[in-house]
Amino acid sequence: MLKPTYPYYLANEAVAANTDLKVTDKFSGEVATRVALADAKVIDQAIQASVDAQEAMAAMPAYARQDVLNHCVKRFTERFEEIALALCIEAGKPIKDARGEVSRLIDTFRVGAEEAVRGGGEVMELQIAPRAKGYRGMWKRVPIGPCSLISPFNFPLNLAAHKIAPAIAAGCTWVMKPASRTPIGALIIGEVLAETDLPKGAFSILPCSRDGADLFTEDDRLKLLSFTGSPGVGWALKAKAGKKKVVLELGGNAAAVVDADQADNLDYVVERIVFGAFYQSGQSCISVQRIMIHDDLYDAVKEKLVAAVKALPMGDPKLESTFIGPMIAESEAKRLEGWINEAVAAGGKLLCGGKREGAMLEATLLEDVPGSEKVSCEEAFGPVAILTRFSDFDDAIKRINDSAFGLQAGLFSNDLRKAMKAWDHLDVGGVVVGDVPSWRVDNMPYGGVKDSGLGREGVKFAIEDMSEIRLLVIRD
After folding, report:
1. Are the beta carbons of 322 and 288 closer than 8 angstroms?
2. Which of 81, 84, 82, 89 is nearest to 31 (CA)?
C-alpha cells in the first residue's frame, strides 16, 4: 500500500514541506496519499543546487556513476511488489501491467549502468590537405549541464527512468517535474537515489502546480529540456525554452497493417493487436489506434478481433485477472466517449464497447469512421481502435503517412520487400515487422517525427542529447 504522505526531493534530500497534493486511487476515486508540493521558490533553489553540483557531478568517475545506477537496480528489485502496487493504485494500471513496468524500470537503469562506463569519442584524421600536416585530432563527449526533466502520467516509473538513468550516466545534474496525477513512482526513485553518493544537489524531484512550473522550461540555467507528454503542451514548451536543447517525446495515432499473407497467422495477429490497442486501457502513445486489414482477410480478422475484445476482463486493476482498468481520470473517459459518439454520428459503426461508467470506458472497436473524425486523426489515448480495409500496399503506406503524427508503425507481413518498403517510406520513428507498433525495449532508439516529437530516447541515444562534443587538436 501507499504511505500516508510522501515528501518531495530538494537537492537530494526528502522535504516534507506540506501535504498539499492529493493523489487518488484511480479505480476507487478516493484519496490514496498526499504529497508535498513545491512552489516557485523551491524550484528556483533546486535549479541553483543543480548548477552548483554540476562540476562535481561531471567529475564523478564513470565507475562511481555506474555504482549509483547498479544500486538502483538492486533496490528496485528488492522492492518490486511494493513499487508495482503503488503504480497500480496511483495510475490505475492493472497489476500485471504494473509489474511489467517495474521490470522495465529495472531494465532501463541496468542499461544505464552499462552505458555509464562506455563513454564516447574517437581519434580523427585531420591531415586531409597539406595545410593540416602535423595536426592530430580527437573528440569526446562531455555533460551538457543541468537538465530539466518532465515526465507523464501514463508510465510514471519507466518514462521517468528514461530521463533519470541517462542523465546520471552522462554526468548531468537534473531537476524533475513528475505528473501531478502520478508522482509516486518518481518519488520512489528519488527515495532510492537519496541512498547513494551522488553529489549534494545532483537531483531534485518536485511535484508542483502550474505556479512556478514555468521555471522548468524557461530558466536559462538549465541546458536541456526533456519532455514527454501531449503534443500541444510539448510544442508550446519548446517555444518558451529559449536557447536550451529540447527533446520531445509526444503523441501518436499508430497504425498496424495486416497483409494478405497472414491467413495462417490470424490468432497471433489478433492477440498482438488486442494487446497493442488495449494494454493499460490504450493510454500509451504507441497504442494501436488504426488497424488496416487487407480486403482478403478483413472479415475474418474483424470477427476474431470483436470476439477477443468483448472477452477482455474489465474492473479493479488490483485483481490479477483484470485487463482493462480505469482511464487516468473521469474527464479523460468522458472526452473519449464523446469522440466515439461523434464518430458514430458521422457514419462510423460501433462494433463493440463504447459504454462508460465513471473513469471506466469499455474497450471499443469502430469501423467506417471518416478520417476527419477526432478518434481517427487525433491521438485517442484510450481504449479505442478503428478498423479499415486496404487492397494496395502502397496505398496503405500513403494512408499511414496521411497523419500529423509519426511515432511507430506495425506490419504483419511475410514479404521482405514490403518490410523494406515500409522501412524506407513510412514517415515514422520506428517500424516494427511481425508485431504491433506498441512494442518497445529500453535500449532501442525510440521517438518520432512530425507532431510526434524531436530526438530519441533509449539510454545510449538520450546520453547523446545530454552531452556535447568537445574537440581537441594537437599540432606536432
Report:
1. no
2. 89
Query: In terms of domains, do 18 and 92 share one?
Result: yes
**Is 285 an active-site residue?**
yes
Choose the catalytic residue: 208, 285, 352, 464: 285
- One-letter identity of residue 301: V
How deeply is 269 buried, as exposed, middle or buried, from its count of CB atoms within 10 A (0-12, 13-18, 19+)? Answer: buried
Q: Domains in the chain: how many in total?
A: 2
Residue with cell 469501423: 367
Q: Which domain holds residue 471?
A: 5-250+452-475
Is 135 inside any structural domain?
Answer: yes
Give yes or no: 147 in active site.
no
- Does residue 410 form part of some domain? yes
Same domain? 224 vs 340: no
Q: Which amino acid, one-letter code, is at 396?
A: A
Q: What is the per-residue burial (b if ≥16 Cβ within 10 Å, else e) of 39-72? A: beebbebbbebbbbbbeebeebeeeebbbbbbbb
65 is a domain residue: yes
Indicate whether 200 and 102 sit together in one domain. Answer: yes
Quick one: 392 and 298 in the same domain?
yes
Rounded to whole angstroms, the Cα distance separating 297 from 338 reads 30
Q: Within this chain, do residues 103 and 47 fall inside the same structural domain, yes or no?
A: yes
179 and 197 fall within a common domain: yes
Nearest to 329, CA basis, from 211, 178, 153:
153
**Quick check: pTM over 0.85?**
yes
Q: Which of 90, 101, 115, 249 is catalytic?
A: 249
Mean pLDDT by 10 residues, the chain (476 residues): 95 97 97 97 98 98 98 98 97 97 98 94 96 97 98 96 98 97 98 98 94 90 97 95 97 97 97 97 97 98 98 97 97 98 98 97 98 96 98 98 97 98 98 98 97 96 97 97
Q: Calculate the alpha carbon distances from 27 to 4, 129, 337 in Å.
A: 18, 69, 18
The interaxial angle of helices 80-91 and 184-193, nearest 10 deg, is 150
Q: What are phi and psi of 160, to 5 degrees?
A: -70, -40
User: Could you tell me the CATH number of the domain that includes residue 420?
Assistant: 3.40.309.10
Q: Are 235 and 269 found together in one domain?
A: no
Q: How far apart are CA 386 and CA 353, in angstroms?
A: 12
Q: What does DSSP say about strands 135-143 and 467-475: parallel, antiparallel, or unpaired?
A: antiparallel
